[in-house]
Specification:
The protein has 292 residues and is an alpha+beta fold. Helix content is 33%, strand content 25%. Bound molecules: aspartic acid (ASP).
Length: 292
Amino acid sequence: MTPYAIALHGGAGVKPGRDYSRAEAQLRRLAGDGAEALKRGVSALDAVETAVRALEAEGLCVAGRGSAPNTAGYVELDASIMDGAAMRAGAVAAVRDVVHPITAARRVMDASGHVLLAGAGAMDFIETQGLARVEDPASYYRIPDGVEPADFDDPKAAAHGTVGAVALDRQGRLAAATSTGGTFGKHAGRVGDTPLIGPGTWADSNVAISATGVGEAFILAGGAGDMAARMRYGGADVNAAADAMLADVARRGGDGGVIAVTRSGEVVFAWNSPGMKRAAAGAAIPVFAAVV
Ligand code: ASP
């Protein structure tokens, strides 16, 4: 059987006793839909973009519609996407009021000649691409159900949300995508790991990875790119690579998790935060979703 698989996350860190059933049901449905699409021959790249767009639109996680304002009172969004077969990537950082940051990242990859566009210049580029914009931020953004305001003194409590997808298609191509409104209480202009190719998102011919957690610690630890390197020239298997990288994140004072899919269709979830919203499905993987 030709392997194919998709895995999704809705962010690291869940609070005991909180009801995540809507987010879990959404992740389960999207994993099933994504696997069906891959079975029909949709590319890994299109599958991860489609899944992340749905997560951005729903607002049940801290990305797209579910994003929370920074300390200056407005939402800034980060997203990135990587095509591991072609070794191409695109990303946007600190952009405002674009409905689908992940599609902005894809356009950066496909149409800008660059990998990462940030701030005002990224907004100018988004304008030229005719992407859907948020007309009324005050009514569009909503803090996800059950999410409380951050404890600004606790960097671990500040990480909450982010969405991501990784996929292997039937042609053996791997892709990864990640999108976030960032951490609660972040400074205006703060950029985390999510839009950084390496720390937040990585795909090559071996593995596709999307990270979530305290972005500062993932940047310092190398995140998804470090995990892929441990596999590529360190000889580690995917589980050992994830555990070693997350141990390094912990040493940098953070926590979080990763989702990964390998070229053989193995899906891995690893986290050192209290839970991670996640789901997967594939040729040999029955649809699965869990939170803790
Ligand atoms: N990693 C994201 C950031 O630091 C936050 C998250 O994953 O929840 O912006």
